């Protein structure tokens, strides 16, 4: 299935607008705030630390060496704009394919800078810079790749788990 990237970006923009509306309602004492909030809403409170911890989960999935385990962290219709490929992946099969190749280098990521934006209870963005340590599978040579990243997360309404809906990563131009 091919996804129209302009339509997907429009969807993301609408998601951000809707999330902003939720935040505005909460800040103004609307239904999402105070004692009027349903008990279930309290269990969905999201903090920056919770969002930052999602990178640790993703990094741990990389450490398994299993592309399916990594792909499980992405929504079924997620878009991946990967660091080491010019091909944008817009479905699970494409995401698995990318990680089949990337994981051969035994990547280990470390966050250098993280900026979290909470877009409501069920959406967040974590962007910043990270460095990957990679090991060449043929020579054993170790190298580092500094990159910029953006993870857009959305809470899955069925499982309550956070899923990556968009992941952009690009090597630093001066790196």
UniProtKB/TrEMBL annotation:
It holds the Pfam family CaMKII_AD. It comes from the Bacteria. CDD domains: NTF2_like. Residues 48-173 form the Calcium/calmodulin-dependent protein kinase II association-domain domain. Coiled coil: none annotated. Residues 1-29 form the signal peptide. Keywords: Signal. This is SgcJ/EcaC family oxidoreductase. It comes from Streptomyces chisholmiae. The lineage of its organism: Bacteria, Bacillati, Actinomycetota, Actinomycetes, Kitasatosporales.
